[in-house]
Design goal:
Layout (H helix, E strand, L loop, with lengths): L8 H5 L6 H10 L8 H6 L14 H45 L4 H9 L4 H5 L3 E7 L6 E2 L5 E3 L3 H6 L5 E4 L6 H4 L8 E7 L8 E7 L12 H18 L6
Parallel strand pairs: 1-3
Antiparallel strand pairs: 1-6, 2-3, 4-5, 5-6
Helix pairs in contact: 4-9
């Protein structure tokens, strides 16, 4: 006796088997199926370009789709390379600034480098930089040696209570932070400074040239690193106790 059944293949598979017309009807009702399923396209046998006039050239469709995917991948690759280059440049700039901060000869020299537009700002490629500290006597304004003095709780009001930093694009620069350069500041990076348990908090403000030089989606690791260096340099020159 033969081990194979004489039943038609459709009957062996079951009543759920689709015929050609049903497949065609389904594809007409779901025209996006192939466009959204590249793995399915890869399993199809494309017709040759010599097929009849009423037959779609699937091979052409598949090639066009692959070309589009290649263009997309190349664009993503270019964006990643550009982002990596910019991150590398920013890292090198911040490291160079950190070394310069550590090499300052006095507290006055430190403040001059941080706040002068030809110092830290120029090295980082930003328009302005400001070093601020909260006052304890209710007086706010321009501080001694270029340090800007904020009113009590001013850091929380600028950053948000308890926040350590804030990056923003499309801003109008504040004269209380950037002085005469405020009108040229279009974006900014702000970071809290905790010098010592014996002093009120401070703020390091960097004002950008362009509206998108700083924006909320940027990473803040380099900004935080720069803030920690500034804190340590201030503590060193003023002989302040370290943070616990």
């Amino acid at each position: 006796m033969s081990q194979y059944s004489d039943q038609p293949e459709a009957e062996l598979i079951g009543a759920s088997t689709l015929n050609v017309d049903e497949v065609k009807t389904y594809l007409r009702q779901h025209p996006e199926l192939l466009a959204n399923d590249p793995d399915l396209i890869e399993t199809l046998v494309p017709p040759s370009q010599s097929t009849g006039r009423n037959v779609l050239d699937m091979q052409h469709f598949m090639i066009a789709r692959l070309q589009h995917q290649i263009r997309t991948l190349r664009e993503i690759q270019a964006e990643l390379i550009e982002a990596s280059s910019l991150n590398s440049l920013a890292r090198d700039q911040v490291h160079q600034v950190a070394l310069t901060l550590l090499d300052t000869k006095s507290f006055e020299h430190l403040i001059e480098f941080v706040t002068d537009e030809n110092g830290l700002a120029r090295m980082l490629g930003v328009r302005a930089a400001a070093l601020c500290i909260e006052t304890t006597n209710g007086v706010a304004g321009i501080g001694i040696r270029g340090v800007r003095v904020l009113e009590a709780d001013g850091v929380d009001r600028i950053l948000g209570e308890g926040c350590t930093h804030r990056l923003a694009g499309h801003v109008t620069g504040s004269r209380s932070l950037y002085g005469h350069l405020a009108e040229e500041v279009q974006s900014e990076a702000l970071v809290r400074l905790d010098f010592s348990p014996a002093t009120p908090p401070g703020l390091l403000a960097l004002g950008g040239f362009g509206q998108d030089q700083f924006h909320p989606d940027q990473g803040t690791d380099l900004l935080e690193f720069l803030a920690r260096i500034v804190e340590r340099c201030v503590r060193q020159w003023l002989d302040l106790p370290p943070q616990r």
